[in-house]
Amino acid sequence: MFKKPMDNLEGLSEDEIQEKLDKIREHEFTKKEERELILAALKTFLPAALGVVLIFVLILKLLLLWLS
């Protein structure tokens, strides 16, 4: 049903893997790239966080309505 994720490091030696990781760590992000990463994170997590907050607010309102 589900496919196994592709492993780009499969079949590489430890040295080759370390070289690839070092290349990734050396990458410097531009201001535009940083802004795009932050916006992507907000688009991903903000709706879920708002949903959780709305559920808590709804439960609190129902609880206060029930207690009064």
Q: How would you sum up this structure, described in words?
A:
This protein has helices at 14-26, 31-67. It is mostly helical and 68 residues long. The longest helix is centred in the last third of the chain and has 37 residues, at 31-67. The radius of gyration is 22 Å and the shape is elongated. The chain starts with 13 loop residues before the first helix and ends with a helix. The mean pLDDT is 91.
Terminus-to-terminus distance: 52 Å
Main beta-sheet strand count, sense and barrel state = none
Q: Outline the low-pLDDT stretches.
A: none
Portion of residues in beta strands equals: under 5%
Structural class: mainly alpha
Spell out the helices and strands N to C: HH
Give the number of DSSP strands.
Answer: 0
- Rg of Cα set: 22 Å
Q: Could you report the average pLDDT, rounded to the nearest whole number?
A: 91
Could you estimate the helical fraction of the residues in percent? over 70%
Shape descriptor: elongated
Count of individual helical segments:
2
